[in-house]
TrEMBL record:
InterPro entries for this protein: AN1-like_Znf, Znf-C2H2_ZFAND2A/B, Znf_AN1
GO MF annotations in UniProt: zinc ion binding
One GO term (biological process): protein targeting to ER
Keyword Thylakoid in annotation: no
Coiled-coil annotated spans: none
GO cellular component: endoplasmic reticulum; proteasome complex
AN1-type domain span: 4-52, 94-142
PANTHER family reported in the protein's UniProt record: AN1-TYPE ZINC FINGER PROTEIN 2A, ARSENITE INDUCUBLE RNA ASSOCIATED PROTEIN AIP-1-RELATED
Record keywords, A-Z: Metal-binding, Repeat, Zinc, Zinc-finger
Name assigned to this protein: Zinc finger AN1-type containing 2A
Top-rank taxon: Eukaryota
Entry keyword annotation includes Nucleus: no
Length: 180
């Protein structure tokens, strides 16, 4: 051999390959070949000191802060034993909590839809004042819903009995255009 001092053997026990461009691990200070210089490849015992990761609790999905030099598995285990807010017997929160105030309707919605006139909570189907027989100022605006008025032209006469107002005029105008 012409250059006997050139290169170093890989420090991995199973490899021992002669490498002319070895890489020195910055934690354990040993020389490794291109295949074993990564912490995980040579199972570096000091890697947890340099490898900065924030472990997440597998039960409550909360990141667990660790100090330098601590083993993440031990810290997460301590959290699970003492501070974890996950309780397997506890019921999950209900998503659909807002029940429709219309008589006979049992639908529940995720979002609250409050009528501006009667302040009742309604589902998507009954959210408009005409669809839930809204009683604003203690009298109903109309007996039939909006959807039944557009379907049946004979109910259009009931709309002309509404109190005069800008909204009622606009509604009458659009209903006559839809029916005709």
């Amino acid at each position: 051999m012409e250059f006997p001092d050139l290169g170093k053997h890989c420090s991995e026990k199973t490899c021992k390959q002669l490498d002319f461009l070895p890489v020195k691990c910055d934690m354990c200070k040993q020389d490794f070949c291109k295949d074993h210089f990564i912490y995980a490849a040579h199972k570096c015992p000091c890697a947890f000191q340099k490898d900065v990761q924030v472990p997440v609790c597998p039960l409550c999905n909360i990141p667990i802060p660790i100090k330098k030099g601590q083993v993440p598995d031990v810290v997460v285990g301590d959290h699970m034993d003492q501070d974890c807010g996950y309780h397997p017997g506890k019921k999950k929160e209900k998503i659909f909590t807002y029940r429709c105030s219309k008589e006979g309707c049992k639908k529940k919605e995720m979002l609250q839809m409050v009528c501006a006139q009667c302040h009742g909570n309604f589902c998507i189907q009954h959210r408009h004042p005409l669809d839930h027989s809204c009683r604003h100022r203690s009298r109903p605006t109309i007996k039939a819903g909006c959807s039944s008025v557009t379907a049946s032209p004979k109910l259009l006469g009931d709309f002309h009995t509404l109190a005069p107002g800008r909204l009622a005029q606009r509604l009458r105008y659009w209903l006559t255009r839809l029916v005709l």
